[in-house]
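G., the chain you wanted modeled:
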Amino acid sequence: MLLNNKIPLKFLFRKTSAEIIFVSILSVIIGIADELLHVGGIAIPLVIPTILGTAISLILTFRTGQSYNRWWEARIIWGAIVNDSRTLTRQLQGFVRTEGDEAESAKALVHRMVYRQMAWNYSLGQSLRKQDPMEHTDRFLSEEERNRIAKHDNVPNALLQLHTADLKEAIEKGWVNTYQQVQLDETLKRLCDSMGKSERIKNTVFPATYSLIVHLTIYLFIIILPFGLVDDLGLIQIPLVITVAMAFFLIEKTAIYLQDPFENLPTDTPVTSIARTIEINLRQMLGETDVPPRTAPVQNFYLM
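Predicted structure as tokens:
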């Protein structure tokens, strides 16, 4: 996720360098042809690129809005994951009976499920980014649990299955009652729903034909824009065309990156940072004092 300060200009312009080079060459050629070579008849009425530019502006507004909605939905989903992870820990600490002969076993179950929830957050983020979902699990899971979930294609889903197995053990041994079991199961259901919503965003591809048409239309507008300005402005049209083109291409690139919030890019939803925040919270809820630091920004201008 891009932060609200210290974003270097080179990061923004690097994404549109090829397009800007093309536009610069085109506008310079047209300017030289009109001013120095006096090639006549190359100018066109300015109303033509004006109409086309207005239409493209409306299309880009809609495109950017739809892309931002996908990014914001992903952020809302991960906000719910934060809340439900804390809720699960609080419920386990408040519901599970840790007195009597099996007190140590009950406490071990609570500890195991809370640590497994930490692993689930990291694993889901890694899975959405098409990275190794087992990468962070060695810090939270036993070797037996790691061996069990490694056999699954969907590791986060396998971790929720282990949660269910422990919850079943808790109710069978009388550590929680039926009403408490329902509440815990509802929390697990919400976590599963959040996982499914994240996977839906990840696996739903933005229509390629729509993106292609918008991109080609922007190129058409930029190509005819110098012809509309050269007659009145001459060589002054060169920086103006480059500036307009840069604005249009930056908006398009912004929409492209926002539409996929789980691609391991600076514009991502910061799932690793959120998972670290959850880990800190849950460890402190367990009474631990040796907690990891919060995730530091990468290159000082974005969080992953």
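The chain has one domain: 9-285.

Shout if anything looks off.
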